[in-house]
Amino acid sequence: MNYENILVETSENIAVVTINRPTKLNALNRATITELHEAFKLLNNSGEVRVIIVTGTGDKAFVAGADIAEFANFNVEDGQKLAALGQELLFDYLQNMGTPVIAAVNGFALGGGLELAMAAHFRVASDNAKMGLPEVSLGVIPGYGGTQRLPQLVGKGRAMEMIMTAGMVTADEAKAYGLVNHVVPQAELIDFCKGIAAKILKNSPVAISRAIEAINANYEDGVNGYNVEVTAFGESFGTEDFKEGTTAFLEKRKAAFPGK
Questions:
Q1: What pLDDT band is residue 68 in, cutting at 50, 70 and 90?
Q2: Do residues 65 and 32 make contact, with C-beta atoms less than 8 angstroms apart?
Q3: Is 70 a catalytic residue?
Q4: Is 59 helix (H, G, I), strand (E, B) or coil?
Q5: Chosen CATH of 6-201 out of 3.40.30.10, 3.90.226.10, 3.10.520.10, 3.40.720.10
């Protein structure tokens, strides 16, 4: 499928989705959000892709924020619709996908860019990356899940400070905060992420999908994550992946998971 604002490359069960708006520092507009949703949905349902890496074009920005020109004249209702639709189409959808998504943060990840990275299952940053939620400097607040996911990742106090000051943190600070898992030289970023993806590919995609579901349940209001875990654990015993994994272990060989 051809896209206007993103690039998708697939090889050896790994897809790299690149936001490709270099003249806008890869800023998110509604068209890009829609294309990302379509691409993630296709990849998630493909049966071939088992890990997705999302990144930005160039060496300056992952995503430098939302496209402010698009909503500068919005009213209250318009703003609420923008946030609700964006969360549904992209940010919540991404977080709950069964296919693991790694955010390769290559430069600035600000506003909606950091929110996109936080919606991924985990993050790896280049050593020149800078991250922040500067929305209050524009008279608004983060609207794509930033006020919810940032405290979950870095704690309430640090999230309050980052949001209230509209400041940026460096890649090393983000790692110390728990916002990113690794910091690597920019030239090595995608290969490093592919190395992690290769480790993921050795394991059961069905089990990984259920693990994502159980982990996310811990952060949902009114949901008992332990109960979700118990159910998902039990259901695992009925899968072909479980049969293959246990058989391979007993036969002292590497498992070849069918993904069923």
A1: confident
A2: no
A3: no
A4: coil
A5: 3.90.226.10
